[in-house]
Each structure stands twice: as C-alpha cells, then as structure tokens.
Amino acid sequence: MMAGMEITLNAPLDMHLHLRDGDMLKLVAPLSSDFAGAVIMPNLVPPVTDPGAMLAYSERIAAAMSGEPFSRYMTLFFTAQTEQQLRMAAETPGFFGYKLYPAGITTNSEGGVANLAEADSTLNMMQDMGIPLLVHGESHGFVMDREAEFLAVYRNLATRYPRLRICMEHITTAAALQLLEEFENLCATVTLQHLIITLDDVAGGALQPHLFCKPIAKRPGDRDALLQAALSAHPRLMFGSDSAPHPRCRKEACGCAAGVFTAPLALPRLAELFATHHALDNLQDFVSGNACRIYGLNPVQKQVTLHDTPMQVPTAYRSYGQQVVPMYAGEQLSWSVKR
Ligand code: NCD
Ligand code: ZN
Fold first, then answer.
1. 19-32 burial string, b = 16+ CB within 10 Å, else e?
2. What does each C-alpha distance from 63 to 72, 75, 107 come to in angstroms?
3. Could you read off the pLDDT of 194-220 as tens digits, one per residue?
4. Which ligand has the minimum distance to the alpha carbon of residue 189?
5. Which of 8, 53, 281, 328 could form a disulfide linkage to 313, CB 3.0–4.6 angstroms apart?
6. Beta strands in 70-139 (DSSP E)
7. Could you say which DSSP state residue 228 is in?
8. Are 232 and 279 in contact, with CB atoms under 8 Å apart?
9. Which residues contact 55 (CB under 8 A, 6 or more apart)?
10. How far is the CA of 192 from the centre of ligand 1 (A)?
11. Ligand 2 centre from 2 Cα, in Å?
C-alpha cells in the first residue's frame, strides 16, 4: 500500500447503533464520538416504547457524550400504534422511526411483533406520515436461513406499502441485496463484520464469541456480494455498525449473548477495507451520503480524518465498572483516526 494515504469524511453516520443504558452507556457512548450521529436502537430493558422515555434516553446519551456534538436519531420499539400515538412520536424532537422486531428474535425483543397483520393500520398511517420502518428481518427458522426466509415478508411489506420507507437492517445475504434491486422503497444497512467475516470466522475453528451476532455471519458468497455493494457505494446501502456491546462476562460464557462491539474501530477498519480495494472515493457515500439522501438528514457538522497509520486495538475497554471486548481485540489495524 502507498504510504501517506488519508481521507477526510464529512459527518460519518452509524445508521444502526446499540448504546445501552446506565454504566454501559457511559462507557460506550464516547467511543462513537468520531461519528457525527447515529440511529439509536430501542431494545433496552424495558424497550423504549413511548416518546417520553425516548426523549429521556436521548438526554442520557447526550450526557454520556459530555457535550460532544452528536446527532441522535432516536427509534421507538414497534408495536401497533394509534394515530394519536404516531403523531406524538412524530412531534418528539429527535424521533427517527420505528424499529420492528419479530417477537423473541434477538436481544430484548420479547415484546416484538408476533403477527404482522395486527400492524396493518399502523403501517398504513406510517407511510402516510412519512415515518420510516426499520426491521430486524429474521424468521424463527434454521439459523442460516432466517434472513432468506424473511425476504418474503420484506417483499410483502414493500408491495403492500409502496410509499413506506422500509430499511432492512444489518443484511447478511446476497439474496437480500437482490431484493433491494426490486423495490425502490427498500433500503438496507450493513455492518462492518458482515463485510469481512463468514460463519467460518465465528465457528469454523475455536469458537469466537466476540464475533457471534444476529444475524449470524453467512457464506463467503454472501460476504463477497455485500462487500462489492458497499465498495461500489450502492445508493440504497448504508453503513450501520450494529455495534452491540455486552459485558465481557456475558460474551465469554455458556449462553454467549449475541452482538459484536465495533464502534471504536469501525471507521479506521472501513477506511482500511476501502483503501485495500481501491474504493476510498466511495467511502463518503457509504458512511454518510447515502443515508443523508435516503432519509433527508442534516447531521451536525463534523469531519474526521483517517490515515494509514496503525491503530492498536485495546484488549478491552473498561470504565464505570464495565468491561467490553471489541472486534480485533489486541490486534493492530493499519488505519487510524488522525488526532
Ligand atoms: C443486538 C443486541 O445485542 O442488542 N445483537 C446482535 O447480535 N446484533 C440486537 C440486534 O440488533 O439483533
Ligand atoms: Zn442491532
């Protein structure tokens, strides 16, 4: 690689982020501060279901960021809503959209949707009001097929609600990318890990709990298709880290929690990945431009410069009595944030 490469990104955005609450929030929020903003997931315990709780959570995030400018695009945990409830949400500062989880599909999603038919009137009103629907798209089938099986649901939603903005969150398959081509009202996020790893990296050798997440990493062909789409800045594909911290003791355990923690290294590793594939010019659209265009966002002004100077990834991030292990713990990346 040529020495002395760098790239300055305008307002990089993380379109799918778990910041948790309490001491974990205090530990991880500052580790996302190279981003100009993020779409914040609502799967707290209990989930964020009403605008008041959402606003209070947004303020706790601001406090944990200690005054660092950061656009907080807040989501509410989807359940059937009345028109009045939707209006209340839409009028709440910082509200971005609803996140739909099939009941019990992932961490803290027990109160999710069991029967989509019950959501029909809510989805109709959301499309009329221009409120985006973000979806965790997995069935309850065999783990490797869950996303593929859910594509029929996406197809159904995209057809039934042609003006609803539907985001397929954290896609992991080539088949999901194909579906994206079929419907203008679909968009998608993809994580860092799903551009890089396959199931082999998770479970092909010694089990790697820190790479275990939902949806699980898939086949090489899926990873390659996702990477090509990201590198070419597919206009409806956005970066969403799905950075999902769990306490170390919940990851290195029997019954390992799902989630990969990537927030502090996502931008350097993306720059390295795009540089390796001679696609640095497309990184701006992938990490910000596409999202701003799709959703009409206007995030806080923030620039971050990345350069091909090594970053040593800590073996763990620790404070407030919390400990969380990142992807690439203890390893060196070849790009870093220029301070
Ligand atoms: C997420 C979490 O831990 O909250 N876990 C994950 O594996 N991605 C939930 C989610 O987005 O599925
Ligand atoms: Zn997530």
1. bbeeebbbbbbbbb
2. 12, 18, 25
3. 999 999 999 999 999 999 999 999 999
4. 2
5. 328
6. 71-77, 95-100, 133-135
7. H
8. yes
9. 74, 92, 93, 94
10. 14
11. 35
Q: Name the residue among 152, 75, 136, 145 with its Cα closest to residue 104.
A: 136
Measured in Å, residue 1 CA sits from the centre of ligand 2 at 33
Q: Which protein residues are within 6 Å of ligand 1, measured from CB?
A: 18, 43, 106-107, 136, 213-214, 242, 244, 258-259
In the chain, where are the structural domains located? Answer: 15-261
Six-digit token string for 57: 């959570």
Question: How high is the mean pLDDT of the chain?
Answer: 97
CA pair distance 207, 48, nearest whole angstrom:
33
Catalytic-labelled residue, pool 14, 34, 242, 308: 242
Nearest ligand to the CA atom of 257: 1
Which pLDDT score, from 0 to 100, does residue 2 have?
55
Q: Which residue has the tokens 């090594």?
A: 310
Q: What is 15-261's CATH number?
A: 3.20.20.140
Question: pLDDT tens-digit profile of 123-181?
Answer: 999 999 999 999 999 999 999 999 999 999 999 999 999 999 999 999 999 999 999 99
Q: Pick from 37, 36, 4, 21: which is nearest to 245 by CA?
A: 21
Q: Report d(CA 240, CA 277) in Å as an integer.
A: 20
* 34 counts as catalytic: no
Query: Which residue, judged by its Cα, is nearest atom 5 of ligand 1?
Result: 259
